[in-house]
Design brief:
Order of helices and strands: HHEHEHEHEHHEEHEEHEHHE
Radius of gyration: 21 Å
Distance between the termini: 17 Å
Structural class: alpha+beta
Number of strands: 10
Bound molecules: flavin mononucleotide
Strand order of the largest sheet: 6-5-7-8-10-9
CATH superfamily of the largest domain: NADH Oxidase
CATH architecture of the largest domain: 3-Layer(aba) Sandwich
Shape: globular
Strand content: 15-25%
Helix content: 25-40%
Mean pLDDT: 90
Number of helices: 11
Amino acid sequence: MIIEFPIEDSVRKRSSVRNFSDRQIEPEKVEAIGRFVKALDNPFGKEVRFHFFAADDLAAQLSSVPHDAPSANPQRIGTYGVIKGASHFIGASIKKEPMALEALGYEMEALILYLASLELGSCWLGGTFDRKGFVEAMEIDEERLLPAITPYGYAAQRKHFKESMMRRLVGAEKRKPWQQLFFHNDFDTALTEQSAGELTLPLEMVRLGPSASNKQPWRVLLKDEELHFFEDKSPGYSAAFSYDIQRIDLGIAAAHLELSARERGITGRFETDGDVELGLDEEAAKGAADEAGSKLTEKSNLRLPDHYEYVFSWRRK
Ligand SMILES: Cc1cc2nc3c(=O)[nH]c(=O)nc-3n(C[C@H](O)[C@H](O)[C@H](O)COP(=O)(O)O)c2cc1C
C-alpha cells in the first residue's frame, strides 16, 4: 500500500463528523477514493472487503427489503438519527477469524485518514447502525460480518443536537495521558516521551486515534526496542456483539503507528508471537525451553494488569 498523503496532519485534523452538508463530492474525489480502497491492504494478512453505497440507492433498497427500522426520512435510514445528511456510505466486511477485526481497523482507518486529507468528514459506526438493513442493502454474503460502516462527505457547518450530546457523553475531545497508555519494560513504569526517542511521534499518533465510545483500549509496552500492543478490555463492552469490537480499535492503533512511523522513515513489521517472548504464553514458553533441552526455571516476571490481553507486537526492521 503506497500512501501519498500526509499522515500526521490527517490524524490531527480528523474528528468524527455526524452532520453532513448537501455539497456534492467532486467526481474526481469519488474516483480517487475508489482507487484508494482497491489498493488497501493490511499487515495481518486478512481479507477486508469494502462495500460502497450512495444514500439514495440505500434508501431505495432498504425500503424494498423488510427490516426493523424503516424511516420516513431517507437521510436517517440505517443510523437511528445519529448521522444526518450523509449521501455516501462505505462498509467493511470480514470473515470471522483471528486478527480480522484488527485488519479491518487498520484498512478502514487508513481510508478515514485519506478522506480527512481530501477534506471529507467521516464517522466510524460500529454500533449505531441498522446492521441487518445495511448487510442486505450492500448484498454482503451471509457468512461475512459487517462490523463497521462510515458515512462520508462534506461536514455541515454545525454539529446536530444529538451529535453534540454524544460527544459530551463520551468526552470525544479528550484522550488519556501518556502514562496511562504507554509503558517501559513493565506495566509499573510509564514510558516518557523522552525515553520513547524517535517512536514518540508514532505513539502520539496512536494516542490521538478514534476508538469505540472513546474508550482508548490500546496499551503499549516498549521492551527491548519492540512495541507490544495490549487491549485493556472494557468488561461487558462487547457483550452486544458476537466479537470483540475493541479489537478494531487495536487495528486503528496499528495503522496510526505504522503509517506515521513510515512517514518519518522508520519501518517495522507486525507479529503476533510477542506473548511467547514476553513469557506470557506459558505453554509455548515451556515448549520452547524443553526443546532447547533446558529447564524453564524462570517464570515471566511481567505482571499483566487485569483485563489486559496481548494482541500483537511491532518490531523495527
Ligand atoms: C470501532 C469504532 C466504533 C464506533 N462506533 C460508533 C457508533 O456506533 N456510533 C457513533 O456515533 N460513533 C461511533 N464511533 C465514534 C467514536 O465515538 C469516536 O471516534 C470517539 O468518541 C472519539 O471522537 P473523535 O472520533 O471525534 O475523535 C466509533 C468509533 C470506533 C473506532
